[in-house]
Amino acid sequence: MKNNRYNAQIIKLTGGQSAEDTKKIEAFFELLEEKCDLPFVSKNLLTEHFLRAFEYYLDQGKTVSETVKLLDPAKLGDFFMDDSRQYYSLDNAAIVYPLGMTFDQMPMFRVSAVLYEDIVPELLQIALDLTIKRFPLFLSIIKNGFFWHYLETTKLIPIIEEENDIPCKPISLILRSNRSFRLLYYKKRISLEVFHVLSDGSGAMIFLKTLVSEYLRLLGHEIPCGEGVKDLNEPVPEEELANEFIKAEGSGSLSTFTDKKALQLDGKLVHTNMSRIIHFNMSAAQLKKAAKRYDATVTTYLLALEFLAIRKAISANKGAVNVQIPVNMRKFDGSVTMRNYSMYFNASCELNDIKDRKQLIELFSEQFKERGNEEVMNNMMKTTDKLISSLSFVPLIIKTPLMQVIYPYMANNIVTGVLSNLGVIETPVEMKEYVDKFLFILNPSRPNRFMSSLATYKDKAVFTITKANREETLENELLRLLEEDGLNIELEGSVDYES
Length: 499
Hints:
With 499 residues, the chain is α+β, with helices and mostly antiparallel strands. It contains 14 helices and 15 strands. It has helices at residues 7-14, 19-34, 40-59, 64-71, 97-100, 121-131, 201-218, 284-293, 298-313, 330-333, 357-371, 374-390, 396-410, 473-484, and strands at 87-89, 108-115, 140-144, 149-153, 161-162, 181-186, 189-195, 276-283, 320-328, 342-350, 417-424, 435-442, 450-457, 460-467, 490-493. The strands form three sheets. The chain has a seven-stranded mixed β-sheet with strand order 10-9-11-13-14-8-15. A hairpin with a 4-residue loop joins strand 3 and strand 4 (149-153). It starts with 6 loop residues before the first helix and ends in a 6-residue tail after the last strand.
């Protein structure tokens, strides 16, 4: 073995081993060194990750041969063989995020997988080291260009973290060592937090499912590819890196971005921007049955209940309530891009016109048809493309302060909250006995006091409310309405993040 700061620990692994197993261990770490031709710090970090995993397996009674097979450094491919970089322009949805964000306001979201057993951090780290080569865009950092921000890939070794802080906390972009995502674990939960410039919820979920699959393989459970689980040895298709917005056709009318100023929930905004997370765990079958009773989809049903709860949580006498509905454009054209590819529309109703479930469901069913169809969404994409083109030659130093003034009026001020449904999450059947459920969390943006999201897996639907205030009327009323319709709700929530 070449000179390595971990030579002593590697030699320690061989202590008490047969001559044959000693040769296998030495050959393993020699191959690992060949597979990581990066600067000293990165190489040592990767070596440390494999050492910890190797020690874990031996402590669990695995043989050296079994351990070498599970951890085989050849699985790293050529990804860490050089420090070359690639550069990507931001997609049309991502381009506004760094322009509109402030020091404590960063567009972050989280997707999580909850397993049936506690997470083994040593193996989760290796799963990330092996998975990231298939999703190199996730190792990007945001950079300032003269006219626009852009993404620059890096080969910095990603590091998992034990969760001990507020979810979706902003990532510092000052340090070059910081990436645009973080991977956290807590007890049985694996959480991927993503800066929205990289991807949307659908793209991030593919990354997470693939990573969980690799983690389960390291535990000894073979999970086949399919249902969003990618082959780690497959080259990255260009289609996964495509900016799909540029192919949109439509009139590009600016009116698609305009709407009335929206009412906001009562209650003072907290300084942390997220005070509480409330998960409404329920049976997916029960939820679907409740929606069907009103001839509604699950999304329009939950939206109607949300509006009824909002009516209770607002003391104003009149005004517009607008809840933003993201639309996954992949459902229209089958795109496989891992980048942002969602548009949105506002489901809206005057406060005094919010009456009952049936009336709201009929209203929103029409609005989904009129505002959420492919033609309207394509028109919005075309409008976005026109706006970006018109600003292409305005220097970033001018665009940034301008957008920080304009963005709240074009986006946040016309929205009361957000409801995003990831839909039914599918995995290979072999994965289902190890994964209990998936979660989806959105980070509230000022002045909005709440976000809501739904993730469904097997028979577990998890409807999540994230709050930026401590007033509890909204969630209490939602619970009452769901139980009134016969749903058995298991509440699961965070502590208050700000007292």
